[in-house]
Write a sequence for this structure.
């Protein structure tokens, strides 16, 4: 039960003055931005808008010796050159090169690697782009089995990285008896890519390598020279387009 006594109300201005005098507190500074606020020679801090953080775009390369720098060096390989090129763009980009010499969709290369093992070891939900490049190492494989292996690789990628862009690039042209094998490999990769709605790039039909004596090939007539690595970087960079600006 309350009593009838009420405390007298103290005006806010008087209370503030009393508080300042008693406690030594400074009055609240005037934060108005304009000529009036400059008369007391106090600087005013204006908050600038903070840019929205951007997620790193992750590009994974699945491939064979065309992507490892075989015949040149890993530093000259087109994935490294692509990474260096994209390093200066506003969107942060990470290029993960999982390619292994001798590997294919079926063929087993260095460290027992196939394209399938490369996928499982390098791709997850944070992957944004997957590039498959090659592989003439699958020469002599049964076409139906090769088609199934390409389909399996594409499906595994879709499962591990549902939102990733996938690009399949066929093998480079051959100018000897292996040319017919290259055509079979190219055809199976292309059909599998089309079956699942994935972009297919055909270096054979597009004549990426004009002939066996091209400066784009190294001494072995099969693997890219340093000039060829630069050429591949330019072609594949154009295929991928600019990195996507994705908020975190």
């Amino acid at each position: 039960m309350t009593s009838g006594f009420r405390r007298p109300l103290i005006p806010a201005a008087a209370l503030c003055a009393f508080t300042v005098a008693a406690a030594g507190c400074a009055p609240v500074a005037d934060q108005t931005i304009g000529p009036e606020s400059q008369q007391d020679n106090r600087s005013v801090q204006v908050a600038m808008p903070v840019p929205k953080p951007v997620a790193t775009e992750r590009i994974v390369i699945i491939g064979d010796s065309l992507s490892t720098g075989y015949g040149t060096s890993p530093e000259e390989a087109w994935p490294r050159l692509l990474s260096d090129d994209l390093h200066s763009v506003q969107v942060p980009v990470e290029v993960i090169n999982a390619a292994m010499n001798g590997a294919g969709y079926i063929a087993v290369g260095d460290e027992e690697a196939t394209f399938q093992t490369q996928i499982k070891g390098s791709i997850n939900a944070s992957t944004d782009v997957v590039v498959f490049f090659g592989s003439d190492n699958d020469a002599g494989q049964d076409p139906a089995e090769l088609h199934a292996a390409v389909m399996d690789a594409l499906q595994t990628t879709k499962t591990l990285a549902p939102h990733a862009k996938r690009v399949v690039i066929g093998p480079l042209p051959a100018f000897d008896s292996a040319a017919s094998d290259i055509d079979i490999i190219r055809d199976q990769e292309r059909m599998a890519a089309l079956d699942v709605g994935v972009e297919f790039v055909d270096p054979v039909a597009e004549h990426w390598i004009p002939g066996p004596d091209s400066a784009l090939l190294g001494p072995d007539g099969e693997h890219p020279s340093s000039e060829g690595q630069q050429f591949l970087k330019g072609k594949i960079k154009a295929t991928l387009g600019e990195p996507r600006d994705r908020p975190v």
Remarks:
- Confidence is low (pLDDT under 50) at residues 1-47.
- The chain is about 35% helix and 10% strand.
- The beta strands are 57-63, 93-97, 129-133, 165-169, 199-201.
